[in-house]
Specification:
- There is one protein chain.
- The chain is an alpha+beta fold.
- The chain has a single domain, classed as SepF-like protein (Translation Initiation Factor IF3).
- 38% of the residues lie in helices and 18% in strands.
Length: 104
């Protein structure tokens, strides 16, 4: 006979409270990429756990060289922090934190 059975005289299930970890929401942000200075702000947003859609059409039209520099910088930052990055035909770049991967 178990100790609990002897103590209580009968066996009863005991429920223990389960503490759940609070789930942080994931936000999807839509941002404009206007120039190279925006990369720092975008990196901060993704490091905080946001998924960022970057509008790039305007920068592509006005200064293609600056756009290419921004994309190269985003690729370097993505490799450094484990972000995932992908472009769309509609002129967006999608940048996700390390916990989210883009299926291609």
């Amino acid at each position: 006979m178990s100790f609990l059975k002897k103590l209580l005289g009968k066996e009863e299930p005991v429920e223990l409270p389960v503490e759940e970890e609070p789930v942080q929401p994931v936000y999807v942000r839509i941002e404009n990429l206007k120039d190279f200075v925006d990369i720092e702000r975008i990196t901060k947003l993704v490091r905080e756990g946001n998924i960022v859609f970057l509008k790039t059409k305007e920068l592509q039209r006005t200064d293609l060289g600056e756009f290419q520099n921004c994309v190269q910088k985003l690729k370097r930052v993505s490799n450094q922090f484990g972000f995932d990055i992908a472009g769309t035909e509609e002129g967006y770049l999608v940048v996700t934190p390390s916990f989210a991967k883009i299926e291609r």
